[in-house]
């Protein structure tokens, strides 16, 4: 197995097409549904969706082998985001220092890149690339990376055109791509981008003309074949769109996304059994392809409604069944069982998803219950504090009575009567004071009682206090004290 250093070096030296294949395959295994792909300035730009946290997120992804100016690379990705919410920057660079995390762009450097390749068992694919690399090929790759002055102009124009395209200014983007083609009429990337601009403006014929020219210049141009299929789909020529994806599959037979797109076209054409075969192939390549799983479920229902049979499980002719019994050929039986196991596994996954949803709902209920429990606990705590305070006063009175017992009991009893009367008067006075304090806005019975305990017997006493002194009253707080202070100032 390749080490981290060997993996990164191999990624840096393989050709652009192989790097594109590795990157797109990795993203698909991570769960991304890739909708478009293009190469520019040595990097790869992809658009795709992925389900996270119960929602479908729209991503713009940049895969780069650049070693310098990572900040500028991320800044450029940020500018290209346009209306998209999320960005992903996938880099082979191990020099991640100084790369600032942004709110909507995730950064995956060299080490995490290696760990992802290892997690999805893709290192063996890289090993085969490593064996093919020779010193001469590496030198040639390095020479190809040195841009001439003319290619630098083309790159600048291409960047400006792409920026305008992402901002929805397609006419301005077209003008930049046309300038590129004036410098180099066989720039296949510019022709591809020009076709996309025409497509966005609804000019399907011009889009098709540009994309066909790009393919004629670079016959194995994956981006162009994919975009050509989209153009034909917009024109309503689904049969031709399907055939175009077929050519793309001939180029890249192990790309699950292409098999999924072909299955979608076949379904629209009503060729359900062929669509079933294509979507099954997509899931053989990438079992985590969310859109392919969804399409397979839909096709299963549609095929069964149309034919009365489960797809992939046709009823055997009687003669063949007899022959199989006589010869003891269990191959067909094993295939049927395998298919049933796959169906059961799919149902298990659906049930797991339902269980997960129920667990999430249960967590929400638990959280609400915990919040209500905490609220009641705080209320009980406040009540208990009040009870403790009253009991403390009661105990103090009892201690005073015990100390007062003795030779002067009669006098004390007389004093107790007086104290009782005094307490009743004080309580009566306190009740009146509390009622007066409650006339203030925001002051209820409990807070009025605490204000009284804090030594403020009347509204006049409160007017003499500062806001800071008011905030020290238990239960008042800085916000409430400010409101009460302002009301007092107005009176």
Could you walk me through the main structural features you see in this protein, from its secondary elements to its overall organization?
- The protein is built from 22 helices and five strands.
- Strands 1-2-3-4-5 form a five-stranded mixed sheet.
- By secondary structure, the protein is an alpha/beta fold.
- The longest helix is centred in the C-terminal third of the chain and has 74 residues, at 331-404.
- It has a domain at 1-143: Trna Endonuclease, Chain: A, domain 1 (3-Layer(aba) Sandwich).
- The model is unreliable at 134-149 and 313-328 (pLDDT under 50).
- It has helices at residues 4-13, 16-30, 70-80, 110-119, 123-132, 135-144, 149-166, 170-183, 188-200, 204-217, 222-235, 238-251, 256-268, 272-285, 290-307, 318-327, 331-404, 409-437, 445-453, 459-463, 467-471, 478-490; strands at 33-40, 43-52, 55-64, 86-91, 105-108.
Which SSEs are present, and which pair or pack?
Elements: H1 4-13, H2 16-30, E1 33-40, E2 43-52, E3 55-64, H3 70-80, E4 86-91, E5 105-108, H4 110-119, H5 123-132, H6 135-144, H7 149-166, H8 170-183, H9 188-200, H10 204-217, H11 222-235, H12 238-251, H13 256-268, H14 272-285, H15 290-307, H16 318-327, H17 331-404, H18 409-437, H19 445-453, H20 459-463, H21 467-471, H22 478-490
Parallel strand pairs: 3-4, 4-5
Antiparallel strand pairs: 1-2, 2-3
């Amino acid at each position: 197995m390749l080490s981290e250093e060997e993996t990164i070096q191999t990624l840096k030296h393989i050709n652009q097409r192989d790097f594109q294949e590795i990157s797109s395959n990795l993203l698909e295994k991570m769960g991304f549904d890739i909708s478009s792909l293009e190469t520019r300035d040595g990097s790869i730009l992809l658009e795709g969706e992925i389900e996270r946290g119960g929602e479908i997120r729209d991503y713009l992804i940049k895969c780069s082998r650049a070693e310098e100016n990572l900040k500028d690379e991320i800044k450029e990705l940020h500018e290209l985001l346009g209306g998209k919410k999320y960005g992903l920057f996938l880099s082979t660079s191990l020099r991640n220092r100084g790369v600032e995390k942004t709110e909507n762009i995730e950064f995956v450097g060299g080490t995490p890149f290696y760990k992802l390749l290892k997690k999805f068992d893709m290192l063996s694919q890289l090993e085969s690339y490593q064996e093919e690399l020779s010193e001469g090929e590496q030198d040639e790759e390095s020479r190809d990376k040195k841009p001439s002055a003319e290619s630098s102009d083309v790159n600048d124009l291409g960047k400006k055109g792409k920026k305008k395209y992402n901002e929805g200014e397609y006419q301005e983007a077209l003008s930049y791509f046309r300038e590129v083609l004036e410098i180099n009429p066989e720039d296949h990337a510019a022709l591809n981008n020009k076709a996309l601009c025409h497509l966005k403006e609804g000019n399907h014929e011009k889009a098709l003309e540009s994309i066909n020219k790009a393919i004629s210049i670079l016959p194995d141009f994956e981006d162009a074949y994919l975009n050509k299929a989209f153009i034909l789909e917009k024109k309503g020529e689904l049969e031709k769109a399907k055939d175009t994806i077929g050519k793309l599959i001939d180029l890249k037979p192990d790309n699950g996304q292409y098999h999924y797109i072909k299955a979608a076209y076949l379904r629209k054409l009503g060729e359900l059994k062929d669509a079933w075969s294509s979507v099954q192939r997509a899931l053989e390549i990438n079992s985590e392809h969310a859109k392919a799983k969804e399409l397979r479920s839909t096709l299963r229902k549609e095929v069964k409604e149309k034919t009365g049979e489960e797809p992939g499980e046709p009823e055997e002719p009687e003669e063949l069944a007899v022959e199989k019994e006589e010869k003891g050929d269990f191959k067909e039986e094993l295939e049927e069982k395998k298919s049933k196991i796959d169906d059961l596994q799919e149902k298990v996954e659906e049930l797991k998803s339902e269980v997960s949803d129920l667990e999430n709902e249960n967590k929400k209920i638990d959280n609400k219950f915990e919040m209500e429990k905490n609220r009641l606990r705080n209320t009980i705590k406040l009540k208990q504090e009040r009870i403790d305070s009253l009991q403390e006063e009661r105990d103090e009175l009892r201690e005073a009575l015990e100390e007062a017992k003795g030779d002067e009991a009669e006098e004390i009893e007389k004093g107790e009567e007086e104290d009782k009367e005094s307490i009743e008067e004080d309580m009566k006075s306190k009740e009146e004071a509390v009622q007066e304090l409650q006339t203030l806005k925001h002051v209820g019975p409990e807070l009025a009682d605490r204000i009284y305990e804090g030594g403020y017997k009347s509204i006049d006493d409160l007017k003499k206090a500062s806001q800071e002194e008011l905030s020290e009253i238990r239960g008042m707080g800085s916000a409430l004290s400010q409101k009460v202070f302002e009301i007092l100032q107005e009176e």
